[in-house]
Amino acid sequence: MMNPLPAPVARKNQFASDNYSGICPQAWQAMAAANQGWADAYGNDPWTEQACDLVREFFETDCQVFFVFNGTAANSLALAALCHSYHSVICHESSHVETDECGAAEFFSNGTKILLVPGAGGKVDLEAVAHTVGRRSDIHYPKPKVLSITQATELGTVYSESELCAVGDLARRLGLRLHMDGARFANALASLNAAPADLSWRAGVDVLTLGGTKNGMAVGEAVVFFNRELALEFDYRCKQAGQLASKMRFLAAPWIGLLQSGAYLDNAAHANRCAALLEREISAIPGISLCHPRQANAVFVSMPPALSEALQARGWHFYTFIGSGHARFMCSWNTEERDVRALANDLRDLAAHLPHRHPAAKN
Ligand SMILES: *Cc1c(COP(=O)(O)O)cnc(C)c1O
């Protein structure tokens, strides 16, 4: 006899990450629609072809598209495709590639070195990039080859179109390829109300990691090569890394569902709106302050540790290890307005009852 299924754990109070959310209806339906009979394996199926075409349509260009399981693979395989082992990749010190991928970029590129630059709000400081490239040109230095930026950034900010163009110009001037980690590319699109092409290849992006999971899919990111020559033999890289799905149609189908219905943008816009509401609701609470400009679906908050702990004790989940270690509240396609209001109410309530420090105790 089969064991009864465990009851789902109700974790309603959820602002930890947009990958704590479930599968959105459009992605789920598209997977169900692809679940018909037999189809050729390893991407030779009509769903994969259609999904690639939809991505090309979305970006208004004839790009090369690959579907992989997750963002770490998408980023590190893309970077490996752009580098030899003696090259280096320049990225922000708080970038996912540096802090959250367990050295995968270095691993898959057989030793390519990551060089870190600072920058306000999670955006690379262009002077620091130029300095990192220009300070050495001798054979002893890992040869800078790629500039990798994140859009929206790890700190919930967004590069504007003109900022992106400046990044693209600099990369071209310095002879660097430009990679964009777009795990939350849709949130940046929704935030700027811009055309996908303007935030990518028209600004000089060679390769984009296009996020699907955090937008509402079960699993999957796309690697989009605007510079098609760089995609040479990328399929082999995916296969060797264990990232070539045999039942590819189920990685591809959700893209059809999200892009055809417009949910890809709608989901991101909804998440951004929830974050904006949270920002408005909590900005006037004494004792807490907002850390970075809220431009996408995350709100970063500085608050006393006692308040953070009290909030967690009430069942709210959020991360405190991202970037500079502030509390991060992340909204997703299925965050509800009442969740946001309930969180804000608890924050307000707890902040009002927190024992105030005596001014004399200040140091
Ligand atoms: C979530 C995320 C990724 C992907 O992470 P995986 O867990 O490997 O799918 C990549 N970049 C950024 C900025 C992210 O937030």
From TrEMBL:
Enzyme Commission number, as recorded: 4.1.2.48
Domain Aromatic amino acid beta-eliminating lyase/threonine aldolase: 14-302
Entry cofactors: pyridoxal 5'-phosphate
Classification via InterPro entries: ArAA_b-elim_lyase/Thr_aldolase, Low_specificity_L-TA_bact, PyrdxlP-dep_Trfase, PyrdxlP-dep_Trfase_major, PyrdxlP-dep_Trfase_small
CDD domains: TA_like
Keyword set, alphabetical order: Lyase, Pyridoxal phosphate
Organism ancestry: Bacteria, Pseudomonadati, Thermodesulfobacteriota, Desulfuromonadia, Desulfuromonadales
Purpose: Catalyzes the cleavage of L-allo-threonine and L-threonine to glycine and acetaldehyde.
Catalytic activity: L-threonine = acetaldehyde + glycine; L-allo-threonine = acetaldehyde + glycine
Family: Belongs to the threonine aldolase family.
Protein name: L-threonine aldolase
